[in-house]
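User: quick one, fold this
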Amino acid sequence: MGFLKEFKEFAMRGSVIDLAVGVVIGGAFGKIVTSLVDDIIMPPIGFITGGVDFSAMKYVIKEGNEAAGVAEVAVTYGNFINVLIQFLIIAFCIFLVIKGINSLKKEEPKEPEAAPAPTKEEALLAEIRDILKNK
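Assistant:
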């Protein structure tokens, strides 16, 4: 029974729940960014570069032959370019979100530090002072 209780405490921690929410939102956000890159950003870039479609860019290592049933072997570096652009957009958006959250956080006032304990000399001088006051 102790194992289940320990697991429940672990799963109900705020950081674990926050992480789960972040993963779900991140997955959805990834789809949005993929659409943004594929449907909005890459077509103008392709137009500027003369109609080049990055997702179709590849280096063919071995030609395919459909009649013989041989598949083409190619390095599709254009897809890598699309994914790299998506990563940069996601990283920039996360940077902006974190920066916004940090600006909203209020700085907690620092607690004043406790006065350091008096040294032996100070304690002895205080005793002498107190004795002189009493006379």
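User: anything notable?
Assistant: Strands lie at 59-62, 73-75.
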